[in-house]
Amino acid sequence: MASPQGTIEVTKSNFVEKSNDFIKHLPNASFIAIDEEMTGISLPPNEVTPMSKEDSPAHRYSALKRVPERYSIIQLGISLFEQKSVTETAERDAASFIVRRYKFTMFPGADPNLSREITMHPSAMHFLRENNMSFDTWVQDGIPFCTKFNAQKVVERFLERHQRRIKAAPIMSPNNSQRLVLSRDADKQFHARCITRLREWLDAPLPTPAPTQEGVSLLLPRCNSFLRRSLYEAIQRDYPYLVVETENEQIRVWRLTDDERANRNQRLLEEDFNKYLTESVGVYRIFLALTKACRGEPIKNDLENAILAENAAVATADFVPTAESPTRKIPLVVHNGLMDLLFLMSHFHSPILPGDWVECKDLIHSYFPIIYDTKVLATQYCAESSSRSHLQGVYEDTLESYPEWQLKNSDEESGQQAHDAAFDAYMTGVSFCGLTYTIHNQCEVLPTSSNARFKLWEVSEKLEYPRWLFGRNKLYFHLSPFTIDLETPCDPLGRRISALSTFRVSNINRGITTRDILDCVRGLTDSNQRAIHVDLFWVNDTVFLVGARITSLQQSEDQSEEIFKESGKLLRCALEGRFCNGETIELFVPPARPEKTNSIWNLWGLLGSNDSTLSERPAKRRRTE
């Protein structure tokens, strides 16, 4: 893996330049990995109402959505993984990449109509401080952001200002019936003195040469807004060829030749372009570019063109849409990324997320048609899953398998560690590459042609590789037996188990351990002498779920149905032979979707945005002896 520039730190002071660099390289990416750091990932204890671990994502969503609606993104890390061509890398290294890492530091803008309040959770702030977060940079040089709706309004005003400027239209064009009439003698005298001074200035010869390339100007005395409007009206009525502008509660009048007017308009255009990008649109520019690349869409209209253009001239040029042709949709890669995606929606689509879970999934899927979650790949799609599924653990395991992917520079020793959004995005991308190769090798899936190298990221849309092999558009749901499926309304059980063979066992003795349960189902085989493997999930001290698990990753979901049915019958018989003293054994049925409620939950870590291990859960009675 080659990362030629290290992490590219993007702040407000360099946003236009660095965002242009990002947009330039984005279409060449094989896949894109993201990560975020937020001001909070859980709600205060007094707003938390615990909910059952058996609840489905739809059941928990009404509470879950309030976290991204309340807190803010501090850092958005994006890594672009561009696979080298065959001529650039050795054949043996089938995943040699140029990686560009970007870290966008985000802070709400000054305009209250575009920004949102900042709410900070103390534990999140302590965590970020311990991981070298620069709060000074965040506050002083953070890039603003806005929603799609607000960005469109800002761009429309920018384009309107440009059109007025090139047409030399008056800044204020009041209707004749609304013109101000001065009544006070002092106001009339002030107005007369200013107009007299203006006429004397116009009658005087122009200095040679001109003091600037933008002509000469006259600054009239300071006055209130009422008098300034009166002067505006008089000057624009009697001297329409002059340019009038306000400067620190004073009126400045410009006398310009055609060339000077063109130079001035060009300077003002560039300043206006940079200002509206850095102070208003901000990181929405990155979100728009990212989503269009993930959707394989060209620029559609003049508003999108004005946001994504590399400079002011391109932004204001007549936009001609290109003929739409099928474009490769670039996969987005996350690690335990549900919260990352929800935060993106609340920051760039709407501050209030949809009230319905299915609508929310459809919204995410509309922006990002192809998503891979490395937490899902590591826990559910690798035949020999590592006991470590948190991001850094998966990354380290990947480097053990592919030591040639270790960074060749000293980035990892210079502070670019875990919990920096850009480096976490980098680790996510490296882990994704390693996991896809591992799954490919264990499934013995052939590439598209005999001389082609396996590249999941180039065939995702064509679906040469079925989604059940690599978990396309499935997201990890923390501390839950469910996996989120963005392509279907219902979310299935995860961990390669099925509702056809998953049982809920309740009212068990508190002395029962995990080992006791596994011992009673050990050695089960089906009619084809295949061993029946199980997955165990504790709900609480007296309830657990256990389901037969498909271990052969070459079995499709349709092919697995009969296996699940047979395994379920054998598993139930084994459970009934062991738990026959008042315990209840029943086929697990996910709870019905709840009515809308304002209750809040946050079982330990359930709102976490990234990693979790068993050690991060609340202390509880040991499940094993």
From TrEMBL:
GO MF term (any one): 3'-5'-RNA exonuclease activity
Listed InterPro entries: CAF1_poly(A)_ribonucleases, RNase_CAF1
Pfam family, one: CAF1
Domain of life where this protein originates: Eukaryota
Record-given protein name: CAF1 family ribonuclease
Native organism: Nitzschia inconspicua
Biological classification of the source: Eukaryota, Sar, Stramenopiles, Ochrophyta, Bacillariophyta
